[in-house]
Amino acid sequence: MQPNITSIPILQLASGDVLSLQVYRFQGGTGPKVYLQANLHGAEIVGNAVIHQLLKWLTPLEPHQLNGEIWIVPACNPLATNQRSHYFSTGRFNPYDGKDWNRIFWDYEKETEDLLDFARSHLHLDAETVQRHYRARIQTQFDRLRDKLRSPASAPLSEHYRFHLQSLCLDANYLIDLHSTSNQGLDYLYYFSGREDSAKLFGLDSGILLDRYDGDAFDEAFIKPWLALERCFAQLGREFRFDLEAWTLELGAGMQMNPISVHRGVLGLQNYLIQKKIVQGVVLPQPISKQQMYLTRTSQVKKYYSPYGGMVYPKVALGTSVQQGQVLYQLLIFNKQSYCPTQIEVVAERDGIVYDLASNQAVNTGEYVLATF
Amino acid sequence: MQPNITSIPILQLASGDVLSLQVYRFQGGTGPKVYLQANLHGAEIVGNAVIHQLLKWLTPLEPHQLNGEIWIVPACNPLATNQRSHYFSTGRFNPYDGKDWNRIFWDYEKETEDLLDFARSHLHLDAETVQRHYRARIQTQFDRLRDKLRSPASAPLSEHYRFHLQSLCLDANYLIDLHSTSNQGLDYLYYFSGREDSAKLFGLDSGILLDRYDGDAFDEAFIKPWLALERCFAQLGREFRFDLEAWTLELGAGMQMNPISVHRGVLGLQNYLIQKKIVQGVVLPQPISKQQMYLTRTSQVKKYYSPYGGMVYPKVALGTSVQQGQVLYQLLIFNKQSYCPTQIEVVAERDGIVYDLASNQAVNTGEYVLATF
Amino acid sequence: MQPNITSIPILQLASGDVLSLQVYRFQGGTGPKVYLQANLHGAEIVGNAVIHQLLKWLTPLEPHQLNGEIWIVPACNPLATNQRSHYFSTGRFNPYDGKDWNRIFWDYEKETEDLLDFARSHLHLDAETVQRHYRARIQTQFDRLRDKLRSPASAPLSEHYRFHLQSLCLDANYLIDLHSTSNQGLDYLYYFSGREDSAKLFGLDSGILLDRYDGDAFDEAFIKPWLALERCFAQLGREFRFDLEAWTLELGAGMQMNPISVHRGVLGLQNYLIQKKIVQGVVLPQPISKQQMYLTRTSQVKKYYSPYGGMVYPKVALGTSVQQGQVLYQLLIFNKQSYCPTQIEVVAERDGIVYDLASNQAVNTGEYVLATF
Amino acid sequence: MQPNITSIPILQLASGDVLSLQVYRFQGGTGPKVYLQANLHGAEIVGNAVIHQLLKWLTPLEPHQLNGEIWIVPACNPLATNQRSHYFSTGRFNPYDGKDWNRIFWDYEKETEDLLDFARSHLHLDAETVQRHYRARIQTQFDRLRDKLRSPASAPLSEHYRFHLQSLCLDANYLIDLHSTSNQGLDYLYYFSGREDSAKLFGLDSGILLDRYDGDAFDEAFIKPWLALERCFAQLGREFRFDLEAWTLELGAGMQMNPISVHRGVLGLQNYLIQKKIVQGVVLPQPISKQQMYLTRTSQVKKYYSPYGGMVYPKVALGTSVQQGQVLYQLLIFNKQSYCPTQIEVVAERDGIVYDLASNQAVNTGEYVLATF
Lengths: 373, 373, 373, 373
Description:
The structure is a homotetramer of 373-residue chains.
Chain A: E1 4-12, E2 18-27, E3 33-38, H1 46-58, E4 69-73, H2 78-81, E5 84-85, E6 88-89, H3 115-121, H4 127-150, H5 157-169, E7 174-179, E8 184-185, E9 187-191, H6 196-199, E10 206-209, H7 218-235, E11 245-251, H8 259-275, E12 294-297, E13 302-305, E14 310-314, E15 321-322, E16 327-333, E17 342-347, E18 352-357, E19 362-363, E20 368-372
Parallel strand pairs in A: 3-4, 3-7, 7-11, 9-10, 10-12
Antiparallel strand pairs in A: 1-2, 2-4, 5-6, 8-18, 9-11, 13-20, 14-16, 14-19, 15-18, 16-17, 18-20
């Protein structure tokens, strides 16, 4: 089953060159739509390798084995992927306005004010109808963004970019965004309220519930309007769960495609597609680990920043369970006066697991060192 | 009258070197406190020249000529001022997290929830008491930020930095932040609700009322809690105006200290200090222009971004009054296919004055070109 | 006469996108080949506007009016043109290795050791034969570069890039590279030994003879092997001048397409093509200024760097004739100790004309301020 | 034995802040002078940890245990150490002119023309006298650089910087510069002609003889004038070896202080100081490995650059011995047309050991992948 492959020009450069998205579409039965992308942040390339494996797994399938459609966009942010400073991939921020590439997306929830009215008027309709009507409202509002882009004043690059990307996935059922840390990190995922059970399908060791938002991330922008509607229905006494899911998978280190992280990502995606009955008649190449998943939440995340400038000696490895008061790192502090370098120890403020470690051990005051969850 | 000059270390670098603020304090009678800073964004150096002139004007004064105190901080963001890429001063964004240096400040209004209660309990007290009580509340809350900075997890650089800067001005009456565009720009100021009359004291041609906020700018963070309290009192039927003001002056081009912009800035500040009776017994070196000030608002600002990548030929100069439909610029568009370059015209969406023009005439899709107000 | 337009992919990005050169070829009689390019450094866009005008002037010509061929490459360095840091075009250095994009070119002279032998063996042959034989030698050596690019170890980006660009012009007779300063600059050109008369055809006010090389610039790499051969012949007693010329035109400010600089560049190119009898039967739209051209040399260029960190007040405008000892700029020096800012004056070390001024008036120790020639 | 600690201001920033060097001097008997520095490139911080250990080892020594003096400069390039782009330390190139911070040093050999005359006139003098006279010549020439720095035109930052650094070590006998790769790398050193035996004292696995120069590196600039004089004497029939050595140690990965690399570096330095009899009466904490050192030369180094843009799957680990034809890496190549991603294999061009691997697996055409020696 060959994918349909198309290219979408998204950005014309001053030089006249054009950067594009390439979209792979596997089209099967009338089932749900899965949207999968990778490399939204420039340094986070691991998902491209995952997609490469997945393309090789999907292509031999017979059409009847696919119930639904799968849209895949590797290297989904060419401007970011190709950004360099020396050898380093520094494509986390838009170079024109400093904005994080994953905090720019259009969130319908922020523009709607009458959500409770909508819920009330749809209180007794079936799920499928509610979903169809709500989706149409979102789509109508989204289409207005195009007018702004086409106006003489047009809009900043990030609004052009997000329009292209969100056009591809606004009508998806399951949206999966493949990331990694920029640093050294564990494999885990972010999930949303009410999706714990599906979270386990990916077979990763840990998951972070987004109970606090940074705002306007790709997964948030997709799912938040639906979670908001679920809350409105709940308020009106109707328990309701849309069959819509959004996932961000974090797979290891930045600028790297660590084979173990790639393998876990591929296996997780395969299992997810099989369990969701989108891919059928296929056996997983190897059984996914059934071990307990460690579930935490963004409000439990603790990030450590250096209190002074200096050189960091980490005293804990990635994956270590630390206890409050345990030494996390030593900081070697040089000075430009007439005394010897000093050294301090920094301890954990609370219990947790070290899930992310800075690649750079030289820090100025306030620079990131590590994080626990 | 010599200023008291102190240095405050604000940031230790990985190398052991330390960056500092230098604060000039002129101390006179028991009048209000003025806080003045420059160069918060790295490219916006013009205010340093303004401060240099002002220091020369203040120093010969006799102590009795100063009713109050004036705190002055030139080069107030050393990390940003010294940032370079090739010859260019690119210090608008924090290199660690991409955040705009003028969107990081602590805003008490965002943390308080019982403002109406406070207003109600102070409804019949005199202005001076209200102001003292409210200031104490802000100060108490602000002091908690220090605890976070000193905790093992500490905080990102921007939280360290803002703490130092806001410590200096939290108790000011009049706060003035000297900026410029990064590009080519007119001389104008930003002002806040209810401060139109004072705005005119600076003698600049134009002023923009902040009726829409970007959020967490230096001037906003200072004045917004007071504006919020004024609104609460208004809601309770008491009209009230605190004698507190915050100003951002925009003085010409980026990376430049244009003599005319400097002169206007100096004269405006001198007149403001004299009219506020902080500096006394001095005659302005030259009368400030009495011409009509053009007042507009942030919601009237229209920014133009390039719809395609190409080379910009501006068709309007800085200061031009344009009408809807008038050609603003031509865009020369190259391509990497087999046809000749094309050229399009971009017109004004609404009437306005061109107050800012990009220094860079090469644009990618969505890159900034010009703005009208 | 429509140009033949082709695109040459030169660089594939990690994202799979490709950056290309676009080449316009006007083909007429059997006369010489002119090669013209613009925007080798990212900020130096003015030449694109010149080329745009020139395309409009060449296209209406009849084939018989063109004696020779003209190859034109606007936006000839897409990677550099599109590089940004904040709003600024910082494409002067390759982001991977820091190398100046105009110091990377392949110079045959550096690889040949038996030039005198070649001259001796060709001492009595006619110019046309010598030129043909020598060109063949250069070409043969150049073709070996392709082998390296295609080997498994391949080569750094700059070697890929230069190969594409030099492939297009190795057999040209007249090579013209359109630049500008990154800063604020006059309009002038660089010329090579023995080409003073042709230099005047461009009608610019000033010209700098390259009597000292930086090494591996585009124009140098083209002409130096021929100048070396001319010197060998001279050594053997035969005076000889190949009809080969290389020019770098500097047209005004960086990131700008100043209309006056564009106009001068266009007129100069038109006159050059007419005087060289490549374009025939056309009258210049306006006579080119006959005024005296100021000729100087790279060894006369004096660049001024700031002795301390501070803010620069220029005391001379672009184009000013300065005398030794004359004040060039004042430097306002802040400190982080307890004394007031200081101010120093910097004077000219020798007589000259100010031809280049830094756009950025904030300088660290050793940062560029201005230059005279 | 406490070191004498001094700070040397080297660079004033536009903001008025000053960056400094801190120098630790251990002064003992009348023996040779050792000069040791670290972190000349911003990302290469490992040497700071080595120095930290060494300071702790030297401080307990009694004065009589030190025969000579040891000068130590950690974080020797503050501008580079503190440079950031996102989280990454990008301080390899001077941000003003793109120059590699380790290709800027003043090399006496390039300025002297009469070296053979000097050798001839000193042919029959004893080594100590020759050394003293030659050193005086170098010093005299070096002092002229100060005049340029102090002239009105002053000089670019890199000339200010190198002057400070070379002032500290011009009269050293043994100079050691602690580096690492910016990427992932083995521990090894660079050595110069005739110094093989001393090279082994550091106990590292591999050494690269500099038989080809990049030019103007710190170690080269120190030792090359002496090697040149040795060659002149050899030419005149006198075999001669000055007791002068220059070393660059490469200790592991960039932005990291890998404990094993640090340990090796410390042990190597301790052994070197003991074997040179500068530190006396101390036993090495552990015997240094006596294994065979692998000696190679810069002309044997083979660097691999990506022939296309894509994602790199390395097929060899750091330290692997590879044979010609062996697969080094696979390249996953995406496209923006309508076909599936492709994959190619890149093989070794010659036998060697993989000693350096790019940290970044996303590559544009011509981007660095790995190197063998």
